Fold this sequence. Notes:
The protein has 6 helices and no strands.
Amino acid sequence: MTTSLQTRSRVLPLHQSPQARPTTIPTVFRAAARLIVANGHHQGDYCPDPFDRVSKTSHANRPLSIVAAIRCVVSGSPHRETPLAEAAVKALADRLVVDGEPAWNDEPFWLEMHVANWGDVEGRTVESVVAVLEAAADANEVAA
Length: 144
């Protein structure tokens, strides 16, 4: 027996497969970590050429910021906000300290900025981003 995905003439990339979408915060963190390992960590915006003015490469194949990677693994777009992606951003923001300060309120925009500011620290590496995402996944599995 085959599924409609198996009978198509083209193979869907993993990030486009409906079965590949994470459904829990820990799986969001792990998927975002894998995406950053595969494509790199981007600082300063969601990704290079975020509004596709020049690049035709899919967002999921570009270096991504932490927030963009979280959103991309949940929805396929670094720009699309979903309840699961925003819950993951909040959970991560609650764990991060930027310039000695925790996130200072629970407004989604400010939580996103807090995570983005942590990722934009000069010298932030793919390894440190992945380590934080994996630690957050582990912590959220234990808390669940």
